[in-house]
Amino acid sequence: MLKGGVVGTLMSNYGLENYFKTEGIKFIRANVGDRYVKEKMQKYKFNLGGEQSGHIILGKFATTGDGLLVALESLFALRKGKKASEFFEKFKKTPQLLKNIDVKDKSIINKPKIKRSIKLVEKLIKGHGRILVRKSGTESKIRVMGESENKTLLSKCVNTIVRKIK
Fold first, then answer.
1. Exposed, middle or buried by CB within 10 Å (0-12, 13-18, 19+), for 138?
2. Which among 9, 49, 65, 151 has the fewest CB atoms less than 10 Å away?
3. Mind listing the domains of the chain with CATH numbers?
């Protein structure tokens, strides 16, 4: 069923990206939102994409995430006698920490002191994980997400940025 590769989002777990890499499957990140996932799917002619929230787009059948369709396709794939645990537990998630900060003005992340803090943290976590700071598309919040196997480093990096924003 897979054609070309898979589109995830900026929030997709790093463990998923590594799994696809080890399987020789192309993985591309899009901005958060079904719309952006679908745009990348069309651009690269991929037929599978989704968000960490569970919205999965099966391009062969639909142009938006459809939970019932995904459930039916999953059941269809299980018909060959595999256990669901074998089918669904394919990759190890990288520990992820997400903090949402209420703000009056989302442009706060453009302030020099915040940008410096983000750059510092990116240098600190480089090679050990990743950090993502973004404006919420739907709420007056800044989302600070980090991923790393080193949970101490992860917490330090995310909390450093959170403290600067608050």
1. exposed
2. 151
3. 5-88 (3.40.120.10), 96-165 (3.30.310.50)
